[in-house]
Amino acid sequence: MEKPASLPMSRASFLLGGTAAASVPSAELPAIASPRDSTTRRGRRALILSGGANRGVYAAGAITALAETAGLRDGQPLPYDLVCGTSIGALNGYFVATAQYSQLRRLWELVSTRPVFEPKSPYNHLANNASGIGTRLYAAFHLAIGLLQRVKGVVNPRGVRDLLHEEFKPAETFHIPLYISVTNITRQRNEMFVLRATSAGGIQRQEINDRLLDDFHRDPIRTVDEHIFYDVFFATAALPLVFDPVLIPHQDDPTKADEYIDGGITKNIPADIALHCADAVHTMLVEPLDSRVEIAYANASEIGLGVFSTMQRRIIELGLYLAYADKRSSTTPLPFKASIIQPAQELPGEFGDFSDRVALQRGWEMGYRDGLRGWRPFEPPIRGLVTND
Question: What is the pTM of this model?
Answer without folding.
Answer: 0.79
